[in-house]
Amino acid sequence: SSLDQLAYSARWENFFEITDELTLKLGLSGALGPNPTGDDLQTRLYGADLKLKWRPANNERGWPFVVWQTEVMARDYEAAAFTDLADPANNLSETTLHDWGLYSQVLYGFSPGWAAGVRVDWATGSGESVGGRDNDPFRDDRVRLSPMVVWDVSEFSRIRVQYNHDWADHLGNGQSDSIFVGLEILFGAHPAHSY
Asked: Confidence band (pLDDT; 50, 70, 90) for 192?
């Protein structure tokens, strides 16, 4: 019913060719919009990222290569007061929650179609959650270590297998393990790019 109820986002990205073998991509992102906790309360997201890629001039269909990429993100979430009629100890006053995190990963393309790498994620925040921030799986302190293997089946498809080891406050023993298998499929034409 009004412009202040819309979400807005912006993205700036720039690409630099440092040498014939080394490229750099930098980016900034932001988003702003209302959240459902109360009238006139907003959520703001901020992000910055970089991607550095080395590929020798003498390569075989793009291999070998080394890619380092990292991103940092932050969120300011204006939360309305919360009243728990069943347990008044869980009542919270109106506040702004500040959460942020980052990841960094290195990927080495060692043979045409194949790459291996490792990723580290870290997230934290400030401000209380119902039941305490340490028990909130969306806001507690978390560190994740993820080795991965990627197979580019073709120019239009990719399979990734990733193992995750998490350290997080809300987990019963403080640690957890998981395995993800991802399949990416691209339909239609795509532009050529050098990074």
From this structure: low
* Rounded distance between C-alpha atoms, residue 21 and residue 53, angstroms: 8
CB-based contact 171:135 (threshold 8 Å): no
Give the ranges where 12-169 is alpha helix by DSSP (H): none
Read off the pLDDT of each residue in 142-161 and give the average, rounded to a whole number.
94
Q: How many residues does the chain have?
A: 195
What mean pLDDT is reported for the chain? 89
Q: Which two tokens stand for residue 129?
A: 């959650």
- Cα separations in angstroms, 108 against 4, 72, 116, 119, 162: 45, 22, 5, 12, 14
Residue type, 144: R
Parallel, antiparallel, or unpaired for β 175-185 and 65-79? unpaired
DSSP 8-state class, residue 5: G
Neighbours of 102 (CB within 10 A): 17
Are the CB atoms for 15 and 24 separated by under 8 Å?
A: yes
Q: What is the pLDDT of residues 98-109, one digit of tens each?
A: 999 999 999 999
pTM value is 0.81
